[in-house]
Amino acid sequence: MDYITVAMAKGRTADRALVLLEKAGIHFSEFHDESRKLVVFDDENSIKLIFVKAVDVPTYVEKGAADIGIIGKDTILEDPRDVYELLDLGIGKCKLAVAGFPGTQITGSQFLTVASKYPNAAKDYFDKKGIRTELIKLNGSIELAPLIGMSDVIVDIVETGSTLKENGLVVLETIRDISARLIVNKASYATKTARIQQFIADLKVALEVHS
Ligand code: PRP
């Protein structure tokens, strides 16, 4: 049987996804927390798991290098790809939010500087509200930007809220809820329909047990 290739990024979401896969009867015996392996196999179910950088998951899936990807909705929104999004895994839950110093006003009459890992999603949000912005793309430590006067606000992921709190920032507006999604390459879905549908069905059962 041909192997199905699943792409995901190591980290919090992958840890939770692997628990879910385990419940679905999919087990990667070579995987452990300290492992530096980038490819692991479940030979019994003919599934290959590849670890890639989170922002690259949709690229692997769109290009067909992976049949399936597990990735946060934040990444999907920031860089939409020509793939099917077929399942909300309900893990990696957080919010995409505008944050800044308490009392920061966000109105249509002003020009806002916005620092974000998600400049496209942020611009889209402010454009729809008729707010003119300058977007500053950063790759991490976003909360620093208002603290050092580089931006008026940030658009970032908020999970527990501790990073904002410890830096004296608050959520000013919630843009949307985020969670991990299962995405599928369109050609793979056409040629490996039964296997991919079975994979999704098994995950859905695992999700019901999980919740
Ligand atoms: C993310 C995000 C926030 C933080 C939010 O950063 O960009 O900084 O987590 O989580 P919290 O609400 O639970 O504090 P990440 O940990 O990915 O690090 P980064 O700053 O390097 O992007």
UniProtKB/TrEMBL annotation:
CDD domains to which the protein is assigned, alphabetical: PBP2_HisGs
Pfam families assigned to the protein according to its UniProt record, in alphabetical order: HisG (PF01634)
GO terms for biological process, alphabetical: L-histidine biosynthetic process
One MF annotation (Gene Ontology) recorded for this entry: ATP phosphoribosyltransferase activity
Catalytic activity: 1-(5-phospho-beta-D-ribosyl)-ATP + diphosphate = 5-phospho-alpha-D-ribose 1-diphosphate + ATP
Enzyme Commission number: 2.4.2.17
Classification via PROSITE patterns: ATP_P_PHORIBOSYLTR
Protein's pathway: Amino-acid biosynthesis; L-histidine biosynthesis; L-histidine from 5-phospho-alpha-D-ribose 1-diphosphate: step 1/9
Free-text note regarding domains: Lacks the C-terminal regulatory region which is replaced by HisZ.
Function of the protein: Catalyzes the condensation of ATP and 5-phosphoribose 1-diphosphate to form N'-(5'-phosphoribosyl)-ATP (PR-ATP). Has a crucial role in the pathway because the rate of histidine biosynthesis seems to be controlled primarily by regulation of HisG enzymatic activity.
HAMAP family, sorted: HisG_Short
Family stated for the protein in its record: Belongs to the ATP phosphoribosyltransferase family. Short subfamily.
Name of the encoding gene: hisG
Protein name: ATP phosphoribosyltransferase
Record note on quaternary structure: Heteromultimer composed of HisG and HisZ subunits.
Domain ATP phosphoribosyltransferase catalytic: 53-204
Keywords: Amino-acid biosynthesis, ATP-binding, Cytoplasm, Glycosyltransferase, Histidine biosynthesis, Nucleotide-binding, Transferase
Subcellular location: Cytoplasm
One GO CC term on file: cytoplasm
